[in-house]
C-alpha cells in the first residue's frame, strides 16, 4: 500500500488517547499501515517527542486491543511519532510544519500523501484548512485527505457555512466525515445480511415488516462533557448522525454496485424520503424529549442532569430522544421506524429490531395461543451478533407454541479481536475508500430533518420536556409512542 503522513490535530485530547493511538497501533500490528508512514501530533501544549511517544505507549497499554507492545519492534513504531506544538491560527507555524512533514515524507517514503485528522472542535476546521493551504502543506503530488469528527455543524445553516469553508480548500472526494457508528462491524454487516441472503430481501418491505425499532442506550451521564452536551443534546449528539445513519442502512435500496458513491446515493434517497413534520404539534405527537433527574443504577445513587458539572442548573436540554419516523417511499409506506436514545438508561446497548407482521393466526386461535411476531435483531454494541426469534412447537407438548431463538453471537466467536471502528475508518481513509463516511448531501438532509424538530421545540418552549429518573427507560411517553400503534419496545438484550 502507498504510504502516508498522518497529521493529527488535537493530539493531546481524549479521542487521540482513547481511540486514535490504539487504532494506529493495531493497524500497524496487523500490517495494515505498512512501513511507509509517520504520525505528527499537533496541539497547542508544548510536549517533546519523547513525552509524546510515552503518551502513545500509555494510551495503547490502557485502551488498545493489543496492550502489550513486546511482540513488535516498538522503537521502530515509536520513532515515527513526532510532536509539534502549533497555534492553529498562525500560518507561520504551518510553514514550519511543512518542513517537518517534508522531512518525514523523505525519510519514510510516503509519496507526498497526507492524511489530516482533525480531532478538534468544528469551529476550528475552517482556519485549519485555510492554513494548511496557505502554509503550503497541500503542495505535493500525493493525496491530501481531510478526516473530521462530528458534530458537523449545529444546524443546516452552520453546517453549510462550514462545508463552504472546507470546499474552498478540499474537494468533496477528499473530505472524510467520520460517524464512528459506520465503522462498527455490525453496522457494516446490515448491508451484507440484507443483500446476501435470499430469505430477508423478499420480506424487506411494508408487506411483511410491521415496524423497526432502533435503540441506542447509554448508562453514562454527560461525564466531563457538560459544556458541549448542554448546547447539543441527544437530538444533535446522537440522532442527527448515528441514529439516522443506522436507519438509512436498514431502509436503503440495494445499490447497483458496491461502490462508495452508489451506496451513498441510496442512503441519501432514504434521508430525502423521511417524512417531515407539518407543525410543532406534529412534532409533539411524534417526538419525545426527556431529561434525567436524580435516580439510581445498580444501587448507586446518581445526580440529575442539572447538577452535572458545566450544565446550566435550569437547563432544558434533552438527554433522551425518541421518535416515530416514516420513510415515505414505495418500500416503506406505512411502516413506523421508532428510534430512541438516551443517557443514564438502564443498559449500554445498541440494537435494531425488525418486527415482522404476523402470519394469519387463525390456525392457532382455537388453541388460545397468542402468536409472537418474528423478530430479527441486529446487536450492534457492545455485544455483536444477529438474533432471530421464531415460533416452534414446544418439544413434548400437545402443540404448545413457544418462541425460540436462533442466535449468532459474533463477538463470542471473534472475541476481543474485532477491529475497533476507528481502525477500520482510518484504514479506509488511508486507502481512499469513503463508503463508511458521510457525504455532504447526507449531512445536509439529516440536518434538515433534525432542524424541524429543534425549531418546533423552540416554539413549544420546554413544555413537552419530560423528566425521567436516572437509571430508567426514559419518559413514559416513549412507551406510549408505540402503544398507540399497538406495538411495544422489545426488551433489549
Ligand atoms: C458519540 C457521542 O458520538 O457517541 C457520545 O458524542 C456517545 O455522547 C458516543 O457517548 C457513543 O458511542 P459508543 O460507540 O460508545 O456507543
Sheet having the most strands: 9 strands, mixed
Strand order of the largest sheet: 16-15-14-13-7-12-11-8-17
User: Could you tell me how far the N terminus lies from the C terminus, measured between alpha carbons in angstroms?
Assistant: 41 Å
Structural class of the helix and strand makeup?
alpha/beta
Coarse morphology:
globular
Please report which band the strand proportion falls in: under 5%, 5-15%, 15-25%, 25-35%, 35-45% or over 45%.
15-25%
Q: Give the bound compounds.
A: 6-O-phosphono-beta-D-glucopyranose
Mean pLDDT: 94
Question: How many distinct helices?
Answer: 15
Proportion of residues in helical segments: 25-40%
Uncertain residue segments: none
Query: How many extended strands?
Result: 17
Give the C-alpha Rg. 24 Å
Active site: 242 (proton acceptor)
GO molecular function, one term: glucose-6-phosphate dehydrogenase activity
EC number: 1.1.1.49
Protein name: Glucose-6-phosphate 1-dehydrogenase
Amino acid at each position: 500500500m502507498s504510504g502516508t503522513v498522518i497529521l493529527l490535530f488535537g493530539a493531546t485530547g481524549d479521542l487521540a488517547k482513547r481511540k486514535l493511538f490504539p487504532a494506529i497501533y493495531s493497524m500497524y500490528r496487523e500490517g495494515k499501515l505498512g512501513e511507509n508512514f509517520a504520525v505528527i501530533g499537533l496541539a497547542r501544549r508544548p510536549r517533546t517527542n519523547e513525552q509524546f511517544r510515552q503518551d502513545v505507549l500509555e494510551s495503547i497499554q490502557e485502551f488498545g486491543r493489543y496492550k502489550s507492545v513486546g511482540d513488535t519492534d516498538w522503537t521502530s513504531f515509536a520513532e515515527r511519532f513526532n510532536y509539534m506544538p502549533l497555534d492553529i491560527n498562525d500560518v507561520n507555524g504551518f510553514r514550519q510544519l511543512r518542513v517537518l512533514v517534508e522531512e518525514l515524507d523523505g525519510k519514510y517514503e510516503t509519496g507526498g500523501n497526507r492524511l489530516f485528522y482533525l480531532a478538534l472542535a468544528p469551529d476550528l476546521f475552517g482556519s485549519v484548512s485555510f492554513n494548511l493551504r496557505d502554509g503550503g502543506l497541500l503542495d505535493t503530488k500525493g493525496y491530501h485527505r481531510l478526516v473530521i469528527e462530528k458534530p458537523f455543524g449545529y444546524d443546516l445553516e452552520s453546517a453549510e457555512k462550514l462545508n463552504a469553508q472546507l470546499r474552498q480548500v478540499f474537494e468533496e472526494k477528499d473530505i472524510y466525515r467520520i460517524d464512528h457508528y459506520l465503522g462498527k462491524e455490525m453496522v457494516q454487516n446490515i448491508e451484507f445480511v440484507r443483500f446476501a441472503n435470499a430469505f430477508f430481501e423478499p420480506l424487506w418491505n411494508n408487506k411483511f415488516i410491521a415496524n423497526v425499532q432502533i435503540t441506542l442506550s447509554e448508562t453514562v451521564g454527560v461525564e466531563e462533557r457538560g459544556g458541549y452536551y448542554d448546547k447539543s443534546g441527544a437530538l444533535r449528539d446522537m440522532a442527527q448522525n448515528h441514529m439516522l445513519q443506522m436507519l438509512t442502512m436498514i431502509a436503503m435500496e440495494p445499490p447497483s454496485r458496491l461502490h462508495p458513491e452508489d451506496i451513498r446515493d441510496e442512503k441519501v434517497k432514504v434521508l430525502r424520503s423521511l417524512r417531515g413534520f407539518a407543525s410543532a404539534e406534529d412534532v409533539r405527537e411524534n417526538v419525545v424529549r426527556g431529561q434525567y433527574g436524580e435516580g439510581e443504577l445498580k444501587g448507586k445513587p446518581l445526580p440529575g442532569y442539572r447538577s452535572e458539572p458545566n450544565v446550566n442548573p435550569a437547563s432544558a436540554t434533552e438527554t433522551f430522544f425518541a421518535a416515530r419516523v416514516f420513510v415515505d417511499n414505495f418500500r416503506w409506506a406505512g411502516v413506523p421506524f421508532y428510534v430512541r436514545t438516551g443517557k443514564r438508561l438502564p443498559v449500554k446497548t445498541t440494537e435494531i429490531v425488525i418486527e415482522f407482521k404476523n402470519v394469519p393466526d387463525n390456525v392457532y386461535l382455537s388453541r388460545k395461543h397468542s402468536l409472537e411476531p418474528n423478530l430479527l435483531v441486529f446487536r450492534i454494541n457492545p455485544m455483536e451478533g444477529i438474533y432471530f426469534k421464531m415460533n416452534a412447537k414446544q418439544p413434548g407438548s400437545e402443540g404448545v407454541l413457544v418462541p425460540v431463538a436462533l442466535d449468532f453471537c459474533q463477538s463470542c466467536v471473534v472475541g476481543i479481536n474485532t477491529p475497533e471502528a476507528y481502525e477500520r475508518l482510518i484504514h479506509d481513509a488511508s486507502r481512499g475508500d469513503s463508503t463508511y463516511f458521510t457525504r455532504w448531501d447526507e449531512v445536509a438532509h439529516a440536518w434538515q430533518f433534525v432542524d424541524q424538530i429543534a425549531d418546533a421545540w423552540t416554539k413549544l418552549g420546554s413544555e413537552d420536556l419530560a423528566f425521567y429518573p436516572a437509571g430508567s427507560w426514559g419518559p413514559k411517553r416513549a412507551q406510549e409512542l408505540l402503544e398507540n400503534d399497538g406495538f411495544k419496545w422489545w426488551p433489549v438484550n
